[in-house]
Amino acid sequence: QLQLVESGGGLVQPGGSLNLSCAASGFTLRSYAIGWFRQAPGKEREGVSCISSSGGSTNYADSVKGRFTISRDNAKNTVYLQMSSLKPEDTAIYYCAAYPARIVQAMCVMTEQLFSSWGQGTQVTVSS
């Protein structure tokens, strides 16, 4: 059974950094594109970033470009989201999700409906 587990969330001051991890079990991550999504209180879930199965293609929401970096280590079956220059508006539950790379080959898209496997989420709070 496909399982994704996020970790690395926590409380950080504005301007600080956090590194999130998404560890996969039950399947080989290299066959899947991975996305990070977030949901703030009272708001709809939104796409943050995604990375293709090979890591050669990435996408970012405009709100995080230049501040967040997505990467993956297929040997460790793990995807990472490095977050820097964090703002209070980055406060949310962050989820990682996966879809089979064969659906959209050679690139990734942050179309939520494509993602068939989801983690439970990790809370990120940016506050002074």
Note the quaternary state here: single chain
- The number of distinct β-strands equals 11
Radius of gyration: 14 Å
Please indicate the percent range of residues in DSSP E strands (runs of 2 or more): over 45%
Helical fraction equals under 10%
Q: Count the DSSP helices.
A: 0
Q: What do the pLDDT scores average to?
A: 95
Measured distance between first and last alpha carbons: 40 Å
Structural class: mainly beta
Q: Uncertain runs with pLDDT below 50, 5 residues or more?
A: none
Instruction: Write down the overall geometry.
Output: globular
For the sheet with most strands, the description reads: 7 strands, mixed
N-to-C SSE series? EEEEEEEEEEE
Description of the structure:
This protein is an all-beta fold. Helices cover about 0% and strands about 50% of the residues. The chain has no helices and eleven strands. It has strands spanning about 5, 10, 20-25, 30-40, 45-50, 60, 70-75, 80-85, 90-100, 115-120, 120-125. The strands form two sheets. Strands 2, 4, 5, 6, 9, 10 and 11 form a seven-stranded mixed beta sheet that branches. Strand 4 and strand 5 (about 45-50) form a beta hairpin. The radius of gyration is 14 Å and the shape is globular.
